[in-house]
Amino acid sequence: MSKAISVEHLSYSYPGVDDTPGVAVFEDISLTVEDGSFVAVLGSNGCGKSTLAKQFNAILLPCGGKVYICGMDTSDEERLIAVRRSVGMVFQNPDNQIVANVVEEDVAFGPENLGVASPVIRQRVDNALRQVGMYEYREHAPHLLSGGQKQRVAIAGIIAMEPKCIVLDEPTAMLDPQGRKEVMDTILALNAQKGITVVLITHHMDEAAMAQRVVVLSNGRIAADGTPAEVFSQVDLLHSIRLASPETVELCYELNRKGFSLPLDKLSVEECAQALYDAIKA
Amino acid sequence: MLKDITLGQYFPGNSPIHRLDPRTKLIWLIGYIVALFTAGNWASYLVVFLFLAFVVALSTIPLKSILTGLKPLVFILIFTGVLNVFFTTGEKPLIAFGVIRIYREGIIRAVFMMARIFMLICGTFLLTYTTSPISLTDGLESLLSPLKKLRLPVHELSMMMCIALRFIPTLIEETDKIMSAQKARGADFESGKLMQRVKALIPILVPLFISAFRRADELATAMECRCYQGGDGRTKMKLLRYKLLDFKAFLLLVVLICAVILLRVFGL
Ligand SMILES: Nc1ncnc2c1ncn2[C@@H]1O[C@H](COP(=O)(O)OP(=O)(O)OP(=O)(O)O)[C@@H](O)[C@H]1O
Ligand SMILES: [Mg+2]
């Protein structure tokens, strides 16, 4: 399998203003994301998740080391547009990433920038809006939509550029449970049906549990990396970096401290209930 | 309360006027203004008025909404009328009262001027009522595009207009939120002298500006992520194209201007 994103010995620090020293975020971090995979990135506030995401899109450039997107070096200025059309970014606040005042015009913004011919844009916009389930709203004004709908419009705007990879930086942070579910369903469908590589930055453990792989960042280093079951069973490690496992695992963990011996890799409620049932019966 | 403000009001619809190309409507407005200012006698004003009435009827926009839109401008209308009545001199005063002399010419001129301004405003309103802001900016960009050769940033200007229109409702909502937050902390915007009220606005404006700058920063990053590189090499999803309807409209415009000129030349 080829690598959609590959980070090699990346170091980065934000430049300081005037005489103040800069803020070092990463010193030496390496990470690869396989084509077509769904990776969740976790970490406490300020550990550098957003900074890492911005490296994937050449918004920030490495101070040392290299970042390759589909084999292209992000610091190569001639490849800038090629990199940005391969990796689409969705940010936390949907209000601040919608450009036009009609839904379909906004979705068309990306392809228009790429110089795509207008009948093709029309097609891409319609397809993208159908994919996120916002086709009926194509002529609405964005400010009259709900948060979840706005975020899906933002995702459609990225899909219309036909990227290989989508990076989402806390896309559900400002949404209610209904909006979160809408957005998560959309992301899962994109990954499963269109084979788009997804990197999801999140603070919600239950969202991370839906991914194929979870990467935990702490102090600019990778603290844990593996399948959700592997990562979330390391409850002590997660607690030490101010994170928590999903509630099901936390429940088993607490019960284990009271003398039970339950497995720590049961992420879904059903599995957890089954494990509890088995333990009590035995 | 601030949500009630609607800027650049647009009444969605599917009338022939709505379906016209925005460029046609912009050119029409210019031609219409030319006709209006060429008109010099009763007959030509009547012709222009009939055209206006025809377009209003076609647009299916209720007369009431056009008239309510005019309300804030009644003062200007009356002011122009009064000014013309008092300051036009003629041969024989109708009324002479101290220094005030009112002539027949003055009254006629006042009526003409008021009619002219009234029809001017109605025409402009019709444009914004029947054209969505985005197609209006598209039309402007396309009409002004020859100026790009003179290095005028036409694309950038229309992009700015478009983004401003997009963010007006967002910022209004935000102002509402900030005002509520300040009221909850005991701020008072409704009473006090003028100076006090102006001062009370500062705690609203400061957070509003800070948040607007933050939004601008985030929006710029998001636009860069979506490969925005200015107007060069950019395409459009909706291409503007003149249709049969537009040619009919242009024909009508030529008829209007010719009629007004003829009436003026022959002084009918
Ligand atoms: N523009 C900037 N200039 C200087 N320092 C910055 C800048 N942006 C972020 N930082 C610092 O870099 C570090 C990493 O920030 P980053 O935004 O990547 O964290 P994060 O993991 O996304 O946090 P959160 O969960 O709150 O989104 C933080 O210590 C932050 O203070
Ligand atoms: Mg962040």
Task: Give keywords.
heterodimer, A: 282 residues, alpha/beta, Rossmann fold, six-stranded mixed β-sheet, four-stranded antiparallel β-sheet, 11 helices, 10 strands, globular, B: 268 residues, mainly alpha, 2 domains, two-stranded antiparallel sheet, 10 helices, 69% helix, 3% strand, binds adenosine-5'-triphosphate, binds magnesium ion
Task: Report on this structure.
The complex is a heterodimer of chains A (282) and B (268). Chain A has 282 residues and is α/β, with parallel strands linked by helices. Chain A has two domains: 3-230, 3-Layer(aba) Sandwich (Rossmann fold); 246-282, no CATH class. Chain A is 39% helix and 22% strand. Chain A has eleven helices and ten strands. Chain A has a six-stranded mixed β-sheet with strand order 6-7-8-3-9-10, with helices on both faces. The mean pLDDT of chain A is 91. With 268 residues, chain B is mainly α. Chain B has two domains: 7-131 and 239-268, no CATH class; 155-231, no CATH class. Chain B has helices spanning 16-19, 22-38, 42-59, 63-70, 74-87, 104-130, 133-144, 154-184, 194-225, 244-266, and strands at 93-97, 100-103. Chain B is flat and about 70 Å long. Mean pLDDT of chain B is 86; it is low at 1-7. The A-B interface holds A 57, 59, 81, 84-85, 88-89, 91, 93, 95-102, 104-105, 108-118, 121-122, 125, 141-143, 157-158, 161 and B 132-134, 162-163, 165-166, 169-170, 173, 215, 218-219, 221-229, 233-239. The structure holds adenosine-5'-triphosphate and magnesium ion.
Topology, element by element:
The complex is a heterodimer of chains A (282) and B (268).
Chain A: E1 3-14, E2 23-34, E3 38-42, H1 49-55, E4 64-69, E5 72-73, H2 80-86, E6 87-90, H3 103-113, H4 118-131, H5 147-159, E7 165-169, H6 177-194, E8 197-201, H7 205-208, E9 213-218, E10 221-226, H8 228-232, H9 235-240, H10 247-257, H11 269-281
Parallel strand pairs in A: 3-8, 3-9, 6-7, 7-8
Antiparallel strand pairs in A: 1-2, 1-4, 4-5, 9-10
Chain B: H1 16-19, H2 22-38, H3 42-59, H4 63-70, H5 74-87, E1 93-97, E2 100-103, H6 104-130, H7 133-144, H8 154-184, H9 194-225, H10 244-266
Helix pairs in contact in B: 2-6, 2-10, 3-6, 3-10, 5-6, 7-8, 8-9
